[in-house]
Structure formats: C-alpha cells, structure tokens
Write a structure and sequence with these properties.
It is built from 14 helices and ten strands. It is α/β, with parallel strands linked by helices.
C-alpha cells in the first residue's frame, strides 16, 4: 500500500498531462492525427472520398471468400482496433484468412456541419461498400460495426440488405429506453434547443464535448481506478506500453458533424426512433426487419459506455432466422484490446464467419 501511494501521483500526473493535451487539441485542432502510434498491421489506403478513407489489410495465408468491412465509430481514431501485436482486432482477423477493410473517418470541418446519417450511411458507407465489391469482384460482403460504427452499419444493412452477407454488431447502442448509464438519463431530460445551440455555436459537436461525454460515463474509472490498475499490473510484460497507447487513443477525440449530432441526440437518444421503427434516413424509414442475413450481436457484460441491456434486443428486432448473441465478460474497450477477448472472442468471431462462408480460395493481393 505504501508503494502504491508513492507511485500513484506520478501515474496520475502523467495521465493528467495527456488529458489536458487531448482537451487542448479538441479545442484547437480539427485533425488530431499527429499523436497516432505506428500501425501494427500493414495496410494501404485504397479509396478516399466524402469524409472517409478506406484502409485495406490483406489476408494472411489461405484466404476466406468473403471480405470483411469494419465500420469504426466517428468519435475517436481507429487505432484501438490495431493497438499492439496480440491485441489487434485487425491482426487477428487477417491471420484467420479474412481480407479486412476499415473505415478511417475524416473529421468534419465546420463547413460540413450539414452532414447527417444520410451523408454517412447512404453516401460514404454505401460508396466504400461499392469499392469493396468492385475490388473483390463480389456481390455481398460481411460487415462489422463497433459502437457508433455499429449503429451506422446496422442502419446501412437495413437500407441496403442486398449487399451484406453477414452482419456483426459490436457493443451496439440500440435501445435508448435503457437509462442505467447516467449520461443517457441526462440527455433524455435536456431541451432539444440545447443541441441546436451547440451546433449553432460550434458548427459541429466539438471534440472536447465528445471527450467529456465519454469520460462522464465512468468518471471514477477515468480519474483513479485505471492508475491503480496500471500500478498493480506494472510488472506484466508490455502492460505499461499498452496503457500508454490506450491513453493516446482516449485523447484522440474528433468532432461529430452537426446534423448527425442533432439526429443522434434527438431521434436516437431522446426519442428512441430506431427501435420504434420511426427513424428516417434519406427519407426512408429504417426497418430492422430488413436485416435477414446472419446476425451476430456481441455485447460487453461490463460495458459502462453502452449498457448491455441497450445492445441485447438486436436479435429480437431483426428479420433473420440465423442470429446469435455473445455476452462477453469485459467492458466497452476490453472487448477490442483485452487478452481474454483475443484468446477467446475473436477466434469465435472468425469461426462464426467461416461457418457462413464457403471453401477457402487462394490468397492474392488486389
């Protein structure tokens, strides 16, 4: 205990400096990219347009026939999915024979505050799906969405079901009538004019506000518990390095486009229109019953960002007869980086996809 009390201030001060630097960048820089660590898995940018870059990661070894597109969230940088050797979702899936594509979202400028779900789903996401189809010479692809990226991918699949062979939702914020997370209850009680005021002032939802919202979901953890955890695990090989990378990711917030922020706050969080089958994108109602492909719903049992009860209803709302829910004993971030997830969960995801594919085909570089 004495050793802990001696070292804890140093860990906390280092974290506080990184937090303040992240907050500074959130105020002043629309493209906070310079602090990103080197990638673990080799990739190339195969498309850039709208507000998205499409990264391609070749399969390793015998290649599975159906490529996988990962739709990342819009609020932080995607290197959490390729954090360290042995703790990389991308690395795990490519080593299981999947050609992986990843959305690398470009932060919106103030002039692009008009961009809403229609621009991101029917514009950017539809385009990158088309690019993958053309590169792979295939009609259907597999789709995996993480958190807010899961919301985008679920909406996309409901609107364009003919293009998706398999759909995987990872910590999906779906049923917003679940109010166990305090921030959700606060958002529910806010006047809609608040969201209009934010975007009228800043154009978009600024990165600093995104960060504060994320941190407020688990304030004790972000303020103290993680540093105690660092101390207790400091002798584990590679843990301190992983912790530093995690802190860099935590400070990689980017703004949310103004129109998407308003739609997300009012229509999804406050009024739960997606679950109530009243949410419209591009003038079309999003009907989850249109998800008739195989659906895998992955839920973090201890998720303090998206409550498990918010994610769990997915399989009961879709039209597919081939659904599976995995409740994995980890939190929102651990589901992507924990050793337990990479030992157990991601091999299960690969096996699930393989069972719904066909025989392997030879590897190639497109």
């Amino acid at each position: 205990m004495l050793a802990l009390l001696h070292d804890l201030p140093r860990y906390w001060m280092d974290g506080a400096v990184r937090t303040l630097d992240g907050l500074r960048r959130g105020w002043s820089e629309p493209f906070p990219l310079h602090d990103e660590p080197p990638a673990v898995t080799p990739s190339q940018v195969v498309y850039e347009g709208g507000k998205v870059r499409l990264r391609y990661y070749p399969a390793v070894g015998a290649r599975q026939p159906t490529p996988l597109l990962i739709v990342y969230a819009l609020i932080k940088r995607p290197f959490i999915l390729d954090l360290q050797p042995g703790r990389s979702v991308v690395e795990s899936l490519t080593k299981q024979g999947f050609a992986v594509y990843l959305t690398d979202w470009i932060p919106p400028t103030r002039a692009e505050n008009w961009r809403g779900f229609d621009a991101y789903v029917n514009g950017d996401l539809a385009k990158v799906v088309q690019i993958v189809q053309m590169r792979e010479d295939i009609e259907q692809i597999s789709l995996l969405g993480y958190c807010l990226g899961g919301l985008l991918s679920t909406i996309y699949t409901a609107l364009h079901p003919e293009t998706i062979k398999n759909h995987i939702a990872l910590t999906l914020p779906l049923d917003m009538s679940v109010r166990q997370i305090p921030l959700y209850s606060i958002v529910e009680r806010l006047s809609p004019e608040i969201f209009d005021l934010i975007t009228a002032t800043y154009g978009n939802c600024p990165a600093w506000l995104v960060r504060e919202a994320f941190t407020s979901m688990a304030p004790v953890h972000h303020a103290l518990d993680k540093y105690v955890g660092l101390y207790r695990s400091k002798e584990k090989e590679g843990y301190a390095e992983m912790f530093d990378l995690f802190k860099r990711w935590m400070n990689s917030d980017v703004p949310l486009a103004g129109q998407l922020f308003r739609e997300l706050a009012k229509d999804i969080f406050q009024h739960n229109l997606l679950v109530r089958e009243q949410f419209q994108v591009g003038g079309q109602v999003v009907n989850l019953r249109n998800l008739t492909c195989p659906v895998l719903n992955i839920v973090g049992k201890y998720d303090d960002v998206v409550h498990p009860q918010s994610s769990l209803p997915l399989c009961g709302l879709v039209g597919s007869h081939d659904t599976q829910t995995i409740v994995f004993p980890t939190g929102h971030i651990g589901i992507a980086v924990s050793s337990a997830a990479h030992k157990d969960l991601w091999p299960r995801v690969g096996a699930w996809l393989k069972e719904r594919g066909s025989k392997e085909v030879p590897s190639y570089v497109a």
